[in-house]
Amino acid sequence: MNAFTDFFGRFHPLLVHLPIGFLLMALVLQWLCNKKKYAAIEPAVPVAFLLGMISAILSCISGWSLATGGEYEEATLELHRWMGIGVAVVSVAAYYFSRQTKLVVKSILAVVLFLLILLAGHLGGTLTHGEGFLTKGLSGITKDSASSARKTIVNVQEAQVFNDIIQPVLLDKCGTCHSAKKQKGGLRLDGQEWILKGGKEGEVITLGNAEASELYKRILLDPLEEKHMPPKGKPQLTEQEIALLHWWISSNAGFAKKVKEVEQPASLKPALLAMQSAAVTMQKPAIPDEPVEPAAPTILDTLRNAGIVVLPVATNSNYLLANFVSISEISEKTVGLLQLISKQLVWLKLGYTSLTDKSWQLIGQCNNLTRLQVDHTNLTDASVRYLTSLPKLQYLNLVGTKITAQGVQQLKGMAKLESMYLGQTMVKGNDITVLKKLFPKVQIDSGNYRVENLATDTQLVKAPPAKK
Ligand code: HEC
Asked: What are 397's strand-pairing partners?
């Protein structure tokens, strides 16, 4: 592709709006001039069609140049191309017949042209903005970003280096431009074969040598440089993600090894541990499989009037989450309202509040809770025992409470418990070791892994001096 066609191609996204405008205008004018009142505008109709036709043809040519760049998803591109050419061809016919009197032919052409514009436009939108762009705003709160779809990593040493750690990062930060939907630079990063195949300019990974790998070099470039990845203005990699990519390439971990099978420099520990806990924090509330009837709208109104935020845990689910964020003084009466939705309530968030003993008791009666967040509350060893009666609880966040190791031990009988957060509590270093033995199946987070950044971490992300 030479520089001129490349340049011309870039006008396509701008040009395409002209035929859409001119041709739709022409259709409206043509329809109007059948009415007596507007008969005078008849001579304008062929002019509008002529302008539409010319701009449609120019759009086709510029589109063709852009498409040869090979950065778009093939099947959609093909369909878009033929629809676009269709618009141009039919617009020539429409222009020709607009100066004649055959009303039937004109009407048929008008309908066909309208449909073609609609389809070509929609497909063009899909190519530039990605599949489902049109309906994205409608699909509600369960729309997962790539990051929240990450697999939960309970023990990072057992995780797969590529599948569980590297691929999610690549999908999250590079996927919009380098995957099945788009292949900027001819590169896909959504699978082993594609990554090894490389991009337009050849291989992007030199196994065993990060510094020599195009993929890594581009990440380290000065963010203002055009070749820096991800490009300026797009979500950037974190220091930890960069450290993980460096480790993945330089250790030659490839695509099938587990973390424990690969040598881990001390400087990488924080990044690896962060993967583990980040994944647990992002874990979705467990939603029971069995269906439940919806809570009555009047009941929901009662709770909402009391200031409790009540939402479905997912679209199309009758299960609910309740959040007390917007209430400063929580009375026993307000907590008591939760009984009205005890069947549906699976997730409760009560951070930064102070509750009476009776209120803690009432919370212990929300039998279907799977996830309970009572961080920074006045929960104590005495009140925590009320929570032991929650039969389905999987996730318990006790961060910032006055709870001690003795208090936590009372939770031992809770069969479903999977993760517990104990940072900033009275549970201290040695207690954690004891508790981990007492709760072998529970992922205990003591909040202590956030070790200070090592000097090597910051060195890692310094950009090499810009090339002149
Ligand atoms: C917003 C879109 C976008 C995102 C996000 C993005 N890239 Fe790119 N990438 C491009 C474009 C455009 C090119 C081609 C132009 C160029 O070579 O600079 C490219 C080219 C590349 C190339 C060179 C391919 C070749 O052989 O020419 C590599 C390697 C690359 N990107 C890696 C990445 C990585 C790794 C990420 C994620 C950390 C990423 N990109 C994220 C747009 C993107």
From this structure: 373, 421
Superfamily of the domain at 297-427 = Ribonuclease Inhibitor (3.80.10.10)
Going by C-alpha positions, the residue among 179, 91, 87, 77 that lies closest to residue 123 is 77
Going from the Cα of 258 to the center of ligand 1, the distance in angstroms, rounded, reads: 27
Any ligand 1 atom below 6 A from CB of 80: no
Among 6, 128, 174, the mutation site with the greatest number of ligand 1 atoms within 8 A of its Cβ is 174
Strands 309-312, 320-323: pairing is: antiparallel
* 3-138 is classed CATH 1.20.120: yes
Q: Which residue has the tokens 């270093």?
A: 429
Given pLDDT bands bounded at 50, 70 and 90, which one contains residue 1? Answer: low
- The confidence score (pLDDT) of residue 180 equals 84
Sign, CA torsion 45/46/51/55: positive
What spacing in Å lies between the alpha carbon of 228 and ligand 1's midpoint?
A: 8
Q: How far apart are CA 5 and CA 11, in angstroms?
A: 10
* pLDDT tens readout for residues 335-368: 999 999 999 999 998 888 889 999 999 999 999 9
Q: What is the pTM of this model?
A: 0.44
- Taking only the tens place, the pLDDT of each residue in 111-140 is 999 999 999 999 888 887 766 666 655 543
Per-residue model confidence (pLDDT) at position 465: 54
> Which tokens sit at 366?
């929300």
Q: What is the DSSP letter of 289?
A: S
CA pair distance 306, 334, nearest whole angstrom: 7
Q: How far apart, in whole angstroms, are the C-alpha atoms of residue 19 and residue 95?
A: 13
- Domains of the chain, residue spans: 3-138, 156-282, 297-427
Atom of ligand 1 nearest to the CA of 198: 26
